[in-house]
Amino acid sequence: MKHLIAPSLLAADFSNLSSEVDMINKSEADWFHLDIMDGVFVPNISFGIPVLESIKDKCKKPMDVHLMIVDPDRYIKAFKNAGADIYNVHYEACTHLHRTVQSIHKEGMKAGVTLNPHTPVAQLEEIITDLDLVLLMSVNPGFGGQKFIENTYPKIERLKELILKKNSSALIEVDGGVDNTNARKLLDCGADVLVAGSYVFKSKNPVQTISLLKEI
Ligand SMILES: O=C(CO)[C@H](O)[C@H](O)COP(=O)(O)O
Ligand SMILES: [Fe+2]
């Protein structure tokens, strides 16, 4: 499978959101990556359901929603109604992860589980066959523009091994500090989806930057 690119709107110009969405629609990007932060699970607040609702009809590609919030179970239906296609919850925020994954699927969304940099992939051993996606954080969640954590490479390899061992079809997504210096190696280690925020939106030509990531 050709790898997928999911630009993170966290780094977009919010005063120009509509044209940023159009830019992604026109580009070779595969998904919209939407970072939801509640100021509790992570020390930052981003945007929420009303913003997604206002762009959902404009977004012509799947909406990959990354929930950096406590108790993500409470908002499964609300985000589904706001246009989410993929509902990515943090392992660290879920007490009854299996039930959460069931609820996400019941709403007709793909279920993703995100791991913070310190959380071992082995924590997913008993649930990996139920997942559509595992998102590995390659920075500590909460902010864009942070430095990529090098331990992500062997972590991808360990996750890939687990996925193969369990015959799971889960995709591996990597999020945080992704750019042209690490993308090739991330794909070689087994990543299927690359999230990129600052690298795309702070570049001179974001459409071209997305193509560059896509053609790696
Ligand atoms: O989840 C996130 C932060 O918690 C963002 O998706 C991530 O940081 C992308 O931004 P950048 O590419 O600038 O690191
Ligand atoms: Fe994210």
From TrEMBL:
Pathway involvement of the protein, from the record = Carbohydrate degradation
What cofactor is needed?
a divalent metal cation; Zn(2+); Fe(2+); Mn(2+)
Read off the InterPro entries from this record.
Aldolase_TIM, Ribul_P_3_epim, Ribul_P_3_epim-like, RibuloseP-bd_barrel
For the protein in the UniProt heading, the enzyme class is isomerase
EC numbers listed for it are 5.1.3.1
Q: Which domain of life is it from?
A: Bacteria
Note accompanying the cofactor annotation: Binds 1 divalent metal cation per subunit.
Entry GO MF terms: D-ribulose-phosphate 3-epimerase activity
Residues annotated as binding substrate are S8, H66, G142, F143, G144, G145, D175, G176, G177, G197, S198
Q: Which reaction does it catalyse?
A: D-ribulose 5-phosphate = D-xylulose 5-phosphate
| UniProt xrefs under PANTHER family | RIBULOSE-5-PHOSPHATE-3-EPIMERASE
Could you say which protein family the record assigns here? Answer: Belongs to the ribulose-phosphate 3-epimerase family.
Task: Name the HAMAP family on file.
Answer: RPE
Q: What is this protein called?
A: Ribulose-phosphate 3-epimerase
Originating organism:
Carboxylicivirga linearis
Q: What is the lineage of its organism?
A: Bacteria, Pseudomonadati, Bacteroidota, Bacteroidia, Marinilabiliales
